[in-house]
Design goal:
The protein has 234 residues and is α+β, with helices and mostly antiparallel strands. It has a single domain, classed as archaeoglobus fulgidus dsm 4304 superfamily (archaeoglobus fulgidus dsm 4304 fold). It is built from 5 helices and 8 strands; from the N terminus they run αβββαβαββββαα.
Length: 234
């Protein structure tokens, strides 16, 4: 799968912040025009010695919805992984500069073309409105959704206990995401727009892909693939 060339990676702290602010203005909030056929989950990790950054993408094919629950029927289509030497320091708010290059290396290995990417990370719910899901979305020019396990910023009211209930995540008066209960009495996920979708699309797709577990199935399987890769690297 081809990837756009947006910028170089050898950036100073000030240049990286300026880049995020500029790119955030290019994020699009488009309505998803049709049900996706291929949905990809993407997750990142690090080697045990901390010298390498890892990425895995699991693509699932949608073949309909389950009666009653509305969850999707998902079948494996493709899995790819990538590993690179880690050369960008840990700086809160600039994690995409550490993780995006290896994610794009994995994307380039895909033989199929997913319609949408669910990414374990932030999208619009970011101090400069450009988390990993948004950053990658601009490179891919595809709809992307941020499905983070924890909050980076913002305030919210705890959503109800049942699956499908969510509350809005706000930064001051601005809505930046949703806090979504994907399984009854389990910690919610922090869902935000990455690129080329709207928040209600992002919430709907996240819930439809959360078939049995807290994590949507594509990102859950991508996390497992990263874990296997980490073990192989020792």
């Amino acid at each position: 799968m081809r990837v756009r060339r947006l910028h170089e990676w050898n950036l100073s702290y000030a240049q990286a912040r300026e880049l995020q602010t500029r790119l955030a203005s290019e994020v699009r909030f488009d309505r998803l025009d049709r049900e996706p056929e291929l949905v990809a989950g993407l997750d990142c990790g690090f080697s045990r010695d901390g010298t390498r950054v890892l990425a895995a993408i699991v693509v699932l094919r949608i073949s309909g919805r389950q009666k009653g629950s509305g969850a999707l029927h998902l079948a494996p289509a493709e899995t790819v992984t990538a590993s690179m030497e880690l050369d960008f320091p840990y700086i809160p708010g600039l994690l995409s500069l550490r993780e995006a290059p290896v994610c794009l290396a994995a994307v380039r290995k895909l033989t199929c073309r997913p319609n949408v990417f669910l990414i374990d990370g932030q999208g619009f719910a970011h101090p400069r409105r450009l988390g990993l899901a948004s950053h990658l979305g601009l490179f891919l020019d595809k709809p992307t959704v941020g499905c983070a396990k924890s909050r980076l910023l913002g305030t919210f009211e705890e959503p109800g206990r049942e699956k499908g209930i969510y509350s809005l995540l706000r930064d001051g008066s601005e809505v930046i995401g949703a806090v979504v209960r994907t399984r009854r009495d389990v910690k919610p996920l922090f869902v935000s727009v990455g690129h080329r979708c709207r928040l209600d699309d992002a919430v709907r797709l996240t819930l439809a892909c959360a078939t049995k577990y807290r994590l949507p199935e594509p990102t859950r399987l991508a996390h497992q693939a990263v874990t296997r890769l980490k073990k192989c690297l020792g």
